[in-house]
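Sample A.
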Amino acid sequence: MRDRHDLTLQALARIERKLDLVMQHLDIRDYAPPEPDTMGEVRDLVRRGKKIQAIKVYRELTGVGLKEAKDAVEQIEAGY
């Protein structure tokens, strides 16, 4: 169940990133207050090629095991 939940959250994050790009391209401003981005640090570490650190941070944020965190980070990595 947790894996499915994590996959759903990751899919939603990808959709939100794509929507942000479309809105930026069309110069549409979102005036709602920004929501906290708990996975921003993980994505940043993945972008910088620091996969092990990203896995560690993901585990700290979510409380999942090593395998689940590794799988999730690899999915984040595949999305870039």
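Sample B.
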Amino acid sequence: MSAASRISLPIGAPAPAFQLPATPDQRVSLDELRGHPVILAFYPADWSPVCGDQLALYNQLLPEFHRSGAQLVGISVDGVWCHAAFAGQRHLHFPLLADFEPKGEVARRYGVYREQDGVCERALFVIDAEGIVRWSYISPLGINPGADGILEALSQLPSTEGAAS
């Protein structure tokens, strides 16, 4: 089965709602991000070389994502303390959400949980301001997908200028 055929969430589908911990005492929900595009970057694990490079690239591109009005969110099955250490060491300036318990529940809703490995696929979703999936991509675990697809998908969305923050 190819990676692309594993996506069970079709383009045009409503993005499944979620609320996940960003820190031990702060949760982030998809609903609270509504009104602006959202980039969901599912990744296998903190501290892996490919994940570190991928998320560092997205961190560098935050100004470009923000020019599109988009919020970037990283999601993996690692816990909040692991995320905190990883984000601090890599100087990341976007939330990393812990899909830790029940393990992979949100990744499963998006069709990107690797049951055999117990991790998320390296999967990207661009969700529009109304909460509709407009683009998605699964990269092989060992390959950094870069940001070209994200930037192209964001350029295709209607402008969100003037949208409520």
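B remarks: The longest strand covers residues 133-139. Strands lie at 19-23, 26-29, 38-42, 71-76, 96-98, 113-114, 119-120, 122-127, 133-139.
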